[in-house]
Amino acid sequence: MDFFAPPVEKLIEEFARLPGIGQKTAQRLAFYVLDLPKEDAERFADAIRDAKAKTFTCKRCQNLTDTETCPICADQARDQKTICVVTDPRDVIAFERTREYKGLYHVLHGTLSPMNHIGPDDIRIRELVQRVADEETEEVILATNPDTEGEATAMYISRLLQPFGIKITRLGYGMPVGGHLEMVDEVTLLRALEGRREL
Fold it and tell me: Does Metal-binding appear among the keywords (predicted)?
């Protein structure tokens, strides 16, 4: 038996489909939207429609943009010979917040995952290889997540790019700032040891 009117149930179901949103949070969001003044609700709906209709991927780096080439790729002051490969657009934002990385990006929009039937043709690897072939790339930084899928994707891309004779690097991983050795797992500790540098 449904507790809510069918349109409310449908709204709750749609919110519940969002990642990280459970049934109770979906209900809270649905009722929040229903309590909005009509103009605010319409503005919210328009923002979703506009984002979906006017956002696409940059022809060069595959990041989300509303222009043919994203602002990062269009910025000639950036290092045009370094490409940082990331899993999704949120990773670009994380790097940009550091204000330290001055190169370009390539967004894969996923990682290889045979268990989920995601192969090389399902993410933007082909576009990366084409970029390296067409542009004067000197270094590719593989910045996929340090999980099983991210590591597999980084290794696969590394093998594909070897014939180009460019520098291929992987992000260093290790001890978190403020962490304690006894709380760190073996893989992280090994990475920290391998990635040590001279002081």
Answer: yes
DSSP, residue by residue, 103-132: SEEEE-SS--BGGGTB-GGGTTHHHHHHHH
Centroid of chain to Cα 130: 20
Q: What is the CATH number of domain 6-54?
A: 1.10.8.420
Using a cut of 0.90, tell me whether the model's pTM lies above it. Answer: no
128-168 confidence digits (pLDDT tens) = 999 999 999 999 999 998 888 999 999 999 999 999 999 99
The CATH number assigned to the domain with range 77-170 reads: 3.40.1360.10
Residues of the chain with CATH 1.10.8.420: 6-54
d(CA 66, CA 177): 37
